[in-house]
Amino acid sequence: MGNGDGMEPYGADDEESAAVLRTVGRVVKTRREQQGLRQAELATAIGYSEEQVSSVERGRRAPSPAFLKAADEVLSAGGLIDALKKDVEQARYPKKVRDLAKLEAEAVEICAYDNSVVNGLLQTEEYLTAVFASRRPAFSEEDVERLVAARLARQGIVGGNGMIPAFSFVHDEAALRRPVGGRAVLRRQLERLLEIGQMRNVEIQVLPIHCEDNAGLDGPFHLLRLKQGTTVAHSDIQLVSRLVSDRREIQILELRYGIIRAQALTPRESLGYIEKLLGES
Length: 281
Fold this sequence. Notes:
By secondary structure, the protein is an alpha/beta fold. It has helices at about 15-35, 40-45, 50-55, 65-75, 85-90, 95-105, 125-135, 140-155, 175, 185-195, 245-265, 265-280, and strands spanning about 105-115, 165-170, 200-205, 220-225, 230-235, 240-245. It is built from 12 helices and 6 strands. The chain is elongated.
């Protein structure tokens, strides 16, 4: 849930996404041929290039919601093509993100420690855009927009859609002081933390820099306690993003997280500390 979340641009090796896009392409192509239109004619009618239409029909490009809506109207598809927007949007997300989102949806409790940036489930749109834009080698503008949309979609779980899980977030103070995107963006991010920290199912804690002990020096990680009683963990450091299910490793991370929480300020003290940081920013 840190900087990358294992999020990389959509690629041909993601067979699940590729299959969805091929299916969407076949639907568009079939309906176009039924209407007796050439690709160039459809492109002109919906305001896209012939190359874009061709790429969509071959499953090589994820069509935008506007493309699907326009194609549905021009091809008199009665909502059939427009209804594919949700499937395409999910296919645009990297596979690791889809897998993580599925686990988050099954969780009754999510615990996270972050020491570099604010946790991904709590980031404002401006802040997370700056996080992805800072990546080197750089993402393209299209990739940044797609990755931002993917993370925003995941954040819905904090708002209480469906079963409301319990959340525990511990941030190293350094993550709350780093002016990602500039001072104004950081201020809005700190204000967002104060707002979310008032939710009954969310606890936010701060581990001050002046604390001599920090059991989280090995890096960020989070724990997901699932409905069936099992716990999995996720860590994302540099180029390595991994889900952990080995019980021995889970026990270590659970112990470590418990110590980190004990070392941090209490949730009430932490909100006061964040207000102090906001005043200094």
